Amino acid sequence: MMDWLRENVWAAWLTLAAALGLAELASLDFTLLMLAAGAVTAGGVAVIFPGLLWLQIVVGLLTAGAMLAAIRPLLNRKFHHGPQLMTGSAHVIGRSGVVVKEIHPDGGGSIKLNGELWTARPYDEMSTFAPGTRVEVMSIDGATAVVYPIGEPLNQHHPELGTPDKTQDPDPPK
């Protein structure tokens, strides 16, 4: 058995590469795949230099190291850094919709968002949004969308409620 292995060390390298490749299917981290590439190159060296085990090991380690340093980061960026999957109601945060039933602090308002009807309330507990107003979802509170009108800054004051509007000049020219 040992004589056969010495004469066919390339087969041992390829068996190791196949085992690492199969293990990669379970991890999907690309580390084992890079090690398998190193084992394949070591197997190639074994075909050319069957008696130089040290050379096979060095070439296999250099190949695996180079692949881990250069190729693996590229593959990880390509396959593991896509758009984040958002599930549940979190997928609507930041999306815009249209008020279909007046939104006021007492509740009862609703918006059309991605073709769905959502109950909604204003973000600041003082605003009222008329039907047709475009709004953006700030957060989700239970099954209610907390919204604010698009184009209105979050810190806008409401003159109709007696609070000063900072956009107006406090001392108009006389």
In words, what does this structure look like?
With 174 residues, this protein is of the alpha+beta class. It is built from four helices and five strands; from the N terminus they run ααααβββββ. A five-stranded mixed beta barrel has the order 1-2-3-5-4. Strand 2 and strand 3 (116-122) form a beta hairpin. Helix 2 (9-27) packs antiparallel against helix 3 (31-48) and helix 3 packs antiparallel against helix 4 (53-80).
Question: Which value, in Å, is the CA radius of gyration?
Answer: 32 Å
- How many helices? The count is 4
Shape: rod-shaped
Please mark out the parts with pLDDT under 50 across 5 or more consecutive residues, or reply none: 153-172
Helix content: 40-55%
Q: What structural class results from the helix and strand content?
A: alpha+beta
Distance between the termini: 106 Å
Give the amount of beta strand, in percent: 15-25%
How many beta strands in the DSSP annotation? 5
What is the helix/strand order? HHHHEEEEE
Biggest sheet, open or closed, and with what strands and sense? Answer: 5 strands, mixed, barrel
Q: Please state the average pLDDT score.
A: 81
Widest sheet: strand ordering: 1-2-3-5-4
What's a concise summary of this model?
By secondary structure, the chain is α+β, with helices and mostly antiparallel strands. 41% of the residues lie in helices and 18% in strands. A five-stranded mixed β-barrel has the order 1-2-3-5-4.
Structural features:
five-stranded mixed β-barrel; 174 residues; alpha+beta
Provide the fold topology.
Layout: H1 2-7, H2 9-27, H3 31-48, H4 53-80, E1 96-101, E2 109-113, E3 116-122, E4 134-141, E5 144-149
Parallel strand pairs: 3-5
Antiparallel strand pairs: 1-2, 1-4, 2-3, 4-5
